[in-house]
Amino acid sequence: DAKTTQPNSMESNEEEPVHLPCNHSTISGTDYIHWYRQLPSQGPEYVIHGLTSNVNNRMASLAIAEDRKSSTLILHRATLRDAAVYYCIPGPMRRSQGNLIFGKGTKLSVKP
Amino acid sequence: SQTIHQWPATLVQPVGSPLSLECTVEGTSNPNLYWYRQAAGRGLQLLFYSVGIGQISSEVPQNLSASRPQDRQFILSSKKLLLSDSGFYLCAWTRESSGNTIYFGEGSWLTVV
User: Fold this and answer.
1) Do B99 and A42 touch (CB under 8 A)?
2) Are A89 and A102 spatial neighbours (Cβ–Cβ below 8 Å)?
3) CB distance from A59 to chain B under 8 Å?
4) A91 lies within 8 A of chain B by CB
5) Which residues is A13 bridged to in the sheet?
């Protein structure tokens, strides 16, 4: 399984952009890069995923390095509701390949 | 649309008592199913995953077990709970059509006293 490195914590001001980095230097060529976030007392929720190209959705943008060894989750305008633990997970493309393992993630604090 | 349910939402159990947490998925077939545990203030620990009926893989040896009696049903059990089993238990499933995106249930808070 690919190992990830994320900052333990980050702080942001409300309405400002946030860039959450993740290193996954041992990612395999067929692994997607998934991002999830976990609000207090809730299960993680899906944020975004990608393979090689940068991705955008209504929640965030995902910038993937050309060598795929790192990626950055971008929250364009942080809100107080974005305060959560963010997990970066390289994961298998095929269900038959089994497990998805979460690291410790980055705890994002958003200040008003 | 697909949904996942797990129950009970909370429970308080004495040390040495049995445990059964149940999870069901609706609206899909042959999903991968997972049980995770999160101790207070800690990260997510993968306990078990299943790629099909009767197929269980254990990630962490312990006094817990899992079973998948039906395609969309996943059960976490213990014969005798320990204090260290306390935590937030999460069932999850993945679908291949979305690049193996994982979806979590509401979670079950277990306190062993």
Assistant:
1) no
2) yes
3) no
4) yes
5) A111
pLDDT in tens, B24-65: 999 888 888 999 999 877 788 889 989 899 999 988 768 999
Q: Cα separation of B108 and A36, whole Å?
A: 19
Q: DSSP letters along B69-85, please?
A: EETTEEEEEESS--GGG
**Burial readout B10-46 (b: 16 or more C-beta within 10 A, e: otherwise):** ebebeeeeebebebbbeebeebbbbbbbbeeeeebbb
Q: Give the pLDDT confidence score for residue A1 in this predicted structure.
A: 56
Average confidence (pLDDT) over A15-21: 97
Q: Do A95 and B44 touch (CB under 8 A)?
A: no
DSSP state of A106: E
- Residues B45, B35: Cα–Cα separation, whole Å: 9
Q: What integer is the mean pLDDT of A25-37?
A: 88
Mean pLDDT of chain A: 89
Question: Rounded to an integer, what is the distance from CA B110 to the centroid of its chain?
Answer: 12
Contacts of A105 in chain B (CB under 8 A): 43
- Distance set, CA B109 to CA A5, A85, B49, B55, B88 (Å): 28, 19, 20, 26, 5
Give the pair of three-digit tokens for residue A35.
Answer: 């991002």
Q: Chain A residues with CB inside 8 Å of B32's CB?
A: 95, 98
The chain B residue lying nearest A104, using CA atoms, is B43
